[in-house]
Amino acid sequence: MSTTHGPAASASAAPTPVPSATPPQAKSSATTTSTAVPAAPPPTTSAPAPTPWWTSGPLLAAVVSAAVAIWLAARTARRSEREKERARQRDLFTAAYQAYADYRELPYAIRRRRHDEAAAERVRLSEVLREIQSRLAYYQTWTAAESETVGAVYRTLVEQARKVVGGGMHEAWKAPPITDDSAMNIPTTVIDLSSLEEREKAYVTAFHQHLQALAPWWRRRASWWGSKSNMISPPQSSETNPARKAQAKPQPDETSSDPGAT
């Protein structure tokens, strides 16, 4: 018996693989079929969004209350400031008119000067005139700065006063001082300032309208309705007004009822 050695013997000694009973394609198909399909996950319900902290009931009520309180405080402060402004301008316009009124009285003061101290009276009245002239110039500038309309009307009033009152002062200095009590009543034939009345009314009307524009709307509306009712309501005659009818009733003649009258 011969023994085979070498590579041929090693090759013959290797085990022969046993062929599989299942074809390759069939095996892969069976493997695919046996693989389980994973089940779909259950639908997840999203949690509700958290409520913002600023929309909570108590906090929202507190915020609204604070906002209303701030608004009321601001409105009250604004109204107070407006009233203070109206009061300040009212004092200014009345002080300006007071300076004009003092200037208006100078012709009377010059005629009523003391006759026994002529030199001292000239100095005193000159100082008074200088002080009033300074105030007039001051208020002309100030009223124009506060309101162009009121300032223009006041300037016209002062210019007209310097013509009329200045002429009255000129004549008063030429006249002798008053030495009798009866002469203290100076008639309009001596000093006539009636031509200034129209300018005075124009100034008062101008600064009243300016102050009215600074008033709250309900006050302006009430003032407007009041002036409107005064304009459209006709004066009552004695036939429709019982009080005026009683006044218009003729009174009995007292002299005829007196038995001692002749």
Automatic annotation (TrEMBL):
Keywords from the UniProt entry: Membrane, Transmembrane, Transmembrane helix
Region ranges (Disordered): 1-51, 229-262
Transmembrane segments: 53-74
Comp. bias intervals (Low complexity): 1-15, 23-38
Comp. bias (Polar residues): 229-241, 253-262
Biased amino acid composition, Pro residues: 39-51
Coiled coil stretches, renumbered: none
Name of protein: Uncharacterized protein
